[in-house]
Amino acid sequence: MSQSTIQQSSVRNGLLAALALADWAHLEPHLEAVELPFDQTVHAAGGPVDAVFFIETGMVSVLVTLEDGAQVESGIAGPEGLLGLALVFGDSHSLTDARVQLEGTALRIGAAAFQAAMDRSPALRALLLRYALAFLGQVTQGGACNARHPIENRLARWLLTAHDRAGADEFPMTHEFMAMMLGVNRPGVSIAAGLLSRAGLIRYVRGRMTITDRPGLEAATCECYHTVRHEYARLLGPRSAAPAASAG
Amino acid sequence: MSQSTIQQSSVRNGLLAALALADWAHLEPHLEAVELPFDQTVHAAGGPVDAVFFIETGMVSVLVTLEDGAQVESGIAGPEGLLGLALVFGDSHSLTDARVQLEGTALRIGAAAFQAAMDRSPALRALLLRYALAFLGQVTQGGACNARHPIENRLARWLLTAHDRAGADEFPMTHEFMAMMLGVNRPGVSIAAGLLSRAGLIRYVRGRMTITDRPGLEAATCECYHTVRHEYARLLGPRSAAPAASAG
DNA sequence: GTTCGTACGTTCGAAATCGAACAAATACTT
DNA sequence: AAGTATTTGTTCGATTTCGAACGTACGAAC
């Protein structure tokens, strides 16, 4: 456990910031600041989920691994949310990998302490269930998007989602990687990214992506981005829908 | 409210059947038997969710409606589950339509009574959260499946999922309709269904689908069917993973 | 028995995407 | 400065899927 007290006012995680003081008090003694280094697997599919991570900075992808080895992104979590959703549902296993895509930091709480806090604090439970529902909305809309929308729209959507969580207009990101997330082949992303770049919406050089025209990107995405964003805002408040964009 | 008492032993819904008597007692006075006629919209996207429906027979699709009017299935519920998942999360709105695909019956409970029962019964809440997690698993795996797997495998998967909930080897189902569920065009389904039919796995005549070789279909599907089924079984017990197949 | 609506089979050209490959450019290493 | 690994741009043919169309079969209604 952490030796020193964490001040709620200094917490950058949207869920924790939304708690009343009494509910925060249930969690705080058990929270431990941890690093989320790039590419770390926070929890693995099939394995146990032994802690919840409230993300403070960075971005983590939730991934389904298919039989052929392909990993497809089903959702993204950032400073608006948490990892270890299975524990919110009272389970201790996950169908998905969680892998750090943009390095950052988190506050970690072990499964037992987390369950105890959930049991004692109805407000905490209610808040985290709303987050779970928002995440379900993200996965639901994303699934339909995968089935029907062309690569260019989906790429714009993914970039906006990443931008919301990156905390900056520029962040490291390769075509190869985005192709895997979207479940498409790499040249497909290169072509789509080329279109967005020629339209002046983004720039990229060797694994560094820069969002140069966010309103333009929002016009280039399918409605799925806006649908998910509105759902996050409705359930968790505007701050949690787009932590980076509204702060910066 | 219903005038007469419903015996738990006669209930065909997997969730209700799994409840201890004390938890059942919280719900029973408020349950009302209702019909689920074909094509009925149980609740609509954006609209309020004013009741939970524990399905007894039949099958209901949970659908995302896209801007272009296309409706893509994100999940299916049958006698193993319920509709109105938003209420389990403490919310009262839904991102999705729920539409009856195979007619049946359900036990309905209004939102207020349902919330009260959830508040009073931790066991009920725990059970329904496990169902919510299983449903999230279905949506998650389905989204990845949409992104990567060819139509034929996805059709086999969908037929197996329907078979599990239909309670019979034969059920009404058109190509047109399956195409919409899978988010693909109709000839794509006709071709895929033709392959499955020539392989002797299914038969169909004018909107009547018959599963003739279930093990064969299970070999023709992608792993996504098995993954989801195992997750349902793990979280809810074997009965809920395949209510029809294990009963018949 | 005829008519009509729906479901299905099939075709066709167009478009999107795939999968593999290779060249060019950039960063890192030595 | 040279060598190496990685990232990106690009090509190309193959495959899948799309979207529209048309003909046929089945079943219900008159």
Automatic annotation (TrEMBL), chains A, B:
<dbReference type="InterPro" id="IPR000595">
    <property type="entry name" value="cNMP-bd_dom"/>
</dbReference>
<dbReference type="InterPro" id="IPR036390">
    <property type="entry name" value="WH_DNA-bd_sf"/>
</dbReference>
<dbReference type="InterPro" id="IPR012318">
    <property type="entry name" value="HTH_CRP"/>
</dbReference>
<dbReference type="Pfam" id="PF13545">
    <property type="entry name" value="HTH_Crp_2"/>
</dbReference>
<dbReference type="Pfam" id="PF00027">
    <property type="entry name" value="cNMP_binding"/>
</dbReference>
<dbReference type="InterPro" id="IPR018490">
    <property type="entry name" value="cNMP-bd_dom_sf"/>
</dbReference>
<keyword id="KW-0804">Transcription</keyword>
<keyword id="KW-0805">Transcription regulation</keyword>
<dbReference type="InterPro" id="IPR036388">
    <property type="entry name" value="WH-like_DNA-bd_sf"/>
</dbReference>
<dbReference type="InterPro" id="IPR050397">
    <property type="entry name" value="Env_Response_Regulators"/>
</dbReference>
<dbReference type="InterPro" id="IPR014710">
    <property type="entry name" value="RmlC-like_jellyroll"/>
</dbReference>
<feature type="domain" description="Cyclic nucleotide-binding">
    <location>
        <begin position="15"/>
        <end position="133"/>
    </location>
</feature>
<keyword id="KW-0238">DNA-binding</keyword>
<protein>
    <submittedName>
        <fullName>Crp/Fnr family transcriptional regulator</fullName>
    </submittedName>
</protein>
